[in-house]
Amino acid sequence: MKFENLNKSIVSSSEFMSKSNKFVSEQSKIDSSIPLGKNNPNHSKHQNMNIKLIAIGKTDNKNLIALITDYSKRLGFYIKFDFEIIPDLKKVKNLSEAQQKEKEGELILAKTQTSDILILLDENGKQLDSVAFSSYLQKHMNSGIKTLVFVIGGPYGFSDAVYARANGKLGLSKMTFSHQMVRLFFIEQLYRGFTILRNEPYHHK
Prior knowledge:
Blueprint: E1 2-4, H1 14-19, H2 30-33, E2 50-56, H3 62-75, E3 80-86, H4 97-110, E4 117-127, H5 130-142, E5 147-152, H6 160-165, E6 168-171, E7 176-178, H7 179-197
Parallel strand pairs: 1-7, 2-3, 2-5, 4-5, 4-6
């Protein structure tokens, strides 16, 4: 799966817009603005694993922000979910691709703990359908790990250090998506996976 650092406008439906009275100004406000996981009264007391998604660069498209907020809020009913944004590097014109990946890699690894299971969203990663992905999540929950971390890299991918630290790789598609859209697609798939595990009617085979 390849990503491009694009900022394409998304045309939202009138139905969705009628339900969204205002947007959060930045994606980094998601964690503090909605009750997720264990802070949510509907969160299962038997669910102890946390899921974290790390991405490079904020999203400035308000429609995408609103959808990401919506699905993050839904996901919080099933599990504690954190979405952490690493700000874009400054003065990247003075950096080679390798140098940019290395600096981004240092920032990514600084967001992780040694006990975390780190999964990269990578074009060469294993591709799963939604049902198989739900089983993948269940397997990690059954293993007793504390935090499962997924990472969306920068425009040039990941550094060697991040690949060396990673516990696995997943691919969403062989198609190319913008970085800003991929984070929405993946959060939706996380939500879909938990509805499948709960046998809820969101997913249709």
